[in-house]
Amino acid sequence: MFNKSSKTLIIYILSEDQKNFDPTISINKKILIQKLKRDGLNPEINNFFLLMWARYQKEEQVNRTIVAKHISSGGIFRRFIRDIAGVSNIVQHTQSYQRNPDIIAVYNPALLHSALKIKKVRGGAIVLFLTNLPQGLARTRRWGLLRSWYYHRIEKRSYGIADKAFVISEATRTYAKVLGVPNNEIYTFSPNVIAIDTSIINSVKKGIVRSQYKISDDKKVILSVGRLEKEKNFPRLIEIFRALNRKDVVLIIVGEGSEHDRLKKLVAKYNLKESIICAGFVSRTDIWNYFYDADIFMLLSQSEGLGLVFWEAMYARVPVIGSMASGILETIGADGLRGFLIKDQEDTSAVSAKIDACIARGDAVSAMIEHAHAYVSEKISHTTTINDIIGGAEK
């Protein structure tokens, strides 16, 4: 991940990712550190001050190198003010942390103005981390057109604020350019989703998930993993599965989110409780059991910056089927190269034929699977971390 000459960086992180926090308990240290490692932020050597928008206000020392500050969001109108002008007292929230930043990391373009206020007072380079496509993602949510327009305005007002960008794909690189980041200051990194789970992968035993759900050996498992949100397009996956009308496959959907109840109702409506399993949340410790018991991985997202779950499936040598979302298309390549692609209006018989090909595992599909595995292995073997591009204080 880093060499012995790496220097310690002071990194401020501005984020709205509330999944790391529980207002009644404390920060989920394990998940947080995994995400920092995944994004090349080197928690082993760097120091962090997290500014987190939440529904409550609190500060806590996570460990020797990480301090988290929870800032009350103050409602939706406060958010608009924050996004457009930056929170007026954002610098005050940093006063308890005495060390000035080398880097101000931002995961949402809407937070760039807040980062700029910190930079003007405390210094540091603003680094935008793009792991998705914010405007495209907004379009898939409730009030999608309005949200998309709002992000369009944010992008216009935030042009040129970010000094550098860390991106995960060509699609996110293009988005960084839209935000005015010079091409020579945009760095592609491969999220470390495999290496952090190496010990788990090495201990996987096939058959655990089949046994858990009592899936007979004569049935094949189609696996889908993702947040149960509109952009993942799970209703379409269920509709396709229903139209296939196949008795030889079981669909397992792993994830949690706001679409959970809607999906459960669809499964009940179509009387598919025996063939569609909604597994809910599955920990990182257990998720690889699902990949290694799957015969096919399938996800039909409407928006995807890269599709890291495809990387995980491909690494596990599971044939993948995905939508034409830009990040998925970049991962799979041409139809049949590292997986199969499904167009928006793909005929059911064509989908069924691709499923049959994955199940049969003929020479062409076997070559496709090995090509996919080699592609992911090559990607994760070349890692760029924040310490590779920015110097800091001596350790």
Description:
It is built from 16 helices and 14 strands. It has 395 residues and is of the alpha/beta class. The protein folds into 2 domains: 10-189, Rossmann fold; 197-380, Rossmann fold (3-Layer(aba) Sandwich), CATH 3.40.50. The chain has an 8-stranded mixed sheet with strand order 3-4-2-1-5-6-7-8. Helix 4 (134-140) runs antiparallel to helix 5 and helix 12 (308-315) crosses helix 15 (363-381). The longest helix is centred in the last third of the chain and has 19 residues, at 363-381.
- CATH architecture name of the largest domain: 3-Layer(aba) Sandwich
- In what range is the share of β-strand residues? 15-25%
Write down the CATH topology of the largest domain.
Answer: Rossmann fold
Q: How would you spell out the order of helices and strands?
A: EHEEEHEHEHHEHEHHEHEHEHEHEHEHHH
Number of domains: 2
Radius of gyration over all CA atoms, rounded: 22 Å
Major sheet: arrangement of strands: 3-4-2-1-5-6-7-8
Strand segment count: 14
In DSSP terms, counting alpha (H) and pi (I) runs of 4 or more, how many helices? Answer: 16
Which word captures the global form? globular
Low-confidence stretches: 1-5, 19-25
What percent of residues adopt helix (DSSP H or I)? 25-40%
Characteristic terms for this protein:
single chain; 395 residues; Rossmann fold; 8-stranded mixed sheet; globular
